[in-house]
């Protein structure tokens, strides 16, 4: 599940850029600065071949996940290892780091991250990238973050600064406020016209 969560976190980062105003072109740098050092190292070590391989395997990853979510990480990592031991090593290092970080969190912070992972994993079940479903999932994560005690938010900010930066971004919050009362058709048009 950790591998799928890492992949979906990258999708969430791209969403942040999509809903940020065009003049805010420093968003990638801000997000990058908020990443843990081992994640920055991982990103810096990814080669063009690594990215091409991950892209070429994305449909296979979705099939593996739908067939047996509980074995996704094991099967996906075995597939990656069979294609590139170098990429497998890079990803395994990030996954091991993620697990160490999760072990250091309080129960409330860990529960929020685990619940958010589950919600992000539900994106795989959305047919044809339905904007209503996608926005509903992200909105539920934003609402859960709003309800956290400040001490839990501070803890998450320490361990996951980029994630909290995304969740507390005023432009993202405004986008979700603006779309709250839109019909399904309006949501689909709004979301897919942002690209």
From TrEMBL:
Top-level division of the source organism's lineage: Eukaryota
InterPro entries tied to this protein: Gp-FAR-1
Subcellular location(s) per record: Secreted
Keyword Signal: yes
Transmembrane segments: none
GO CC annotation, single: extracellular region
Pfam families, sorted: Gp-FAR-1
Keywords: Coiled coil, Lipid-binding, Secreted, Signal
Cleaved signal peptide residues: 1-18
One GO molecular-function entry: lipid binding
Assigned protein family: Belongs to the fatty-acid and retinol-binding protein (FARBP) family.
Official protein name in the record: Fatty-acid and retinol-binding protein 1
Lineage: Eukaryota, Metazoa, Ecdysozoa, Nematoda, Chromadorea
């Amino acid at each position: 599940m950790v591998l799928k969560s890492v992949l979906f976190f990258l999708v969430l980062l791209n969403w942040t850029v999509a809903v940020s105003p065009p003049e805010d072109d420093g968003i990638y740098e801000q997000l990058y600065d908020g990443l843990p050092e081992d994640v920055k190292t991982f990103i810096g070590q990814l080669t063009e071949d690594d990215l091409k391989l991950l892209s070429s395997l994305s449909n296979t990853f979705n099939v593996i996940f739908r067939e047996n979510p509980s074995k996704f990480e094991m099967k996906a990592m075995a597939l990656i290892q069979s294609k590139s031991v170098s990429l497998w090593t890079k990803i395994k290092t990030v996954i091991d780091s993620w697990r160490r970080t999760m072990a250091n969190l309080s129960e409330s912070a860990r529960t929020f991250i685990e619940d958010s992972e589950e919600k992000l994993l539900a994106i795989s079940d959305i047919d044809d990238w339905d904007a209503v479903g996608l926005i509903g999932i992200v909105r539920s994560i934003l609402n859960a973050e709003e309800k956290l005690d400040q001490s839990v938010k501070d803890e998450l900010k320490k361990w996951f600064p980029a994630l909290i930066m995304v969740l507390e971004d005023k432009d993202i919050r405004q986008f979700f406020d603006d779309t709250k009362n839109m019909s399904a058709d309006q949501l689909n048009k709004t979301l897919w016209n942002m690209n």
